[in-house]
């Protein structure tokens, strides 16, 4: 099962047949180098003491991070057009939410910060916080409902819980109707998850779900290493990498419900 997550080592191509041709891989690498450059510029704009004391960041930080995600989106569109030309069209649409019952995982703190800022601008932090608390309660109960079986490593245990959570068919707290309410600020695991099979097959309750063909266009190391450096500059390395838990920790422990202060 392909979950909405990115796991190290990064940079795997989707296992949907032949590897991408060399020229496609080269072009993707070029996109990723540009995205990494934007993340680096965001990191270099951080003034440590201002962030520490006032949770203040320069507005160029937001611009650079937004550009990084936009370039990664462009890279995905390039790969998807290659897949379409070669007879493997992706079936996902912006208004499709069939995969939005997963718990996105593998997030960096920078992705959570970007999401938090989007919610702040929309004035929906508190309502999102309440919905995330409800989901976290369910998540934390999973280990009680399903005591660990044969899982031996932390990764295996996490994978087991992610699959179980998905099977509960609980909507993401950021889903409104069938639309992602944070679409422009959604994290990378949501941006890079695609399906070649009919969208409805992505639902665990669908009888064809075991045959769904999904894949993740994971960013390469050049991007993820820069995101890790950015997290280190912001002191966000210890946040949970699960969307819901990481978001709650960020709101309470990092921002203390304050907005980010943007300075020119
Ligand atoms: S953040 Fe948006 S895209 Fe991601 S799972 Fe939630 S509703 Fe879906």
From TrEMBL:
The record's section on Pfam families has: CxxCxxCC
Query: Could you tell me what this protein is called?
Result: Putative zinc-or iron-chelating domain-containing protein
| Highest taxon of source | Bacteria
Origin organism is: Desulfacinum hydrothermale DSM 13146
